Amino acid sequence: MEIRAALLAEMDDLHEIDGTIESTHYLHVEQAGDGPTLSWRLEERRMRSTRTISNPIDEENRFFLRQLLTGAEEGIALAIVRQNLPVALLLAREAHDRRTLCLTDLRVESEYRRQGFATALLLMLIGEARSRQLRAVSAETRADNAPMYRLLPRCGFELAGLDTRRHTNHDLVKESATLFWYAALD
Predict the structure, then answer these.
(1) What is the pLDDT of residue 135?
(2) pTM, two decimal places
């Protein structure tokens, strides 16, 4: 196993890393109050059945990855390689105005999950942010992505907020809330 910067020659293989999300739990979001007294309560709940969400690399991250690997844009693209094939990928970009590294994608091939690959990539990202003297690493995830919302706190991230309207214009759809996370470095 080797952890290193992703290479342009690996572009097709990087796109093929399985990003499918399987969740048996979700964070139920409950709203109370209104206006300045608005508050939210999160409670982990079991889903009726396992939810499998296809999670291919979206067009924005495909473009960002190509820009990174060709040197046209700044950011971080880390890969874990086994037997000359990438099995995990992390993408992040620097938000100069906020002095943070923003995680934009993290995926591990299904047969290599639960072996510490995502943890290793996140810890390397945090180390890179420290070396750049940034103030934090940020991440976003959905309330129905249990593997990610469980991983982030183990790597030093704290829940910093949520957005209940990002993925829906209807009344609060609890499983669709976006969660914002920060690993503060200062």
Answers:
(1) 96
(2) 0.90
Q: What is the mean pLDDT of residues 127-155?
A: 95
Beta strands 158-163 and 178-184, pairing class: antiparallel
Q: Which helix (H) or strand (E) holds 126?
A: helix 117-131
> From the CB of residue 51, how many other CB atoms can be counted at a distance below 10 Å?
16
C-alpha–C-alpha distance, residues 30 and 45, integer Å: 12
pLDDT in tens, 11-27: 999 999 999 999 999 98
Q: For 49-79, what is each residue's pLDDT tens digit?
A: 998 988 889 999 999 999 999 999 999 999 9
Domains belonging to the chain, first-starting first, are 2-27+45-184 (3.40.630.30)
Identify the CA nearest to 42 among candidates 167, 159, 170.
159
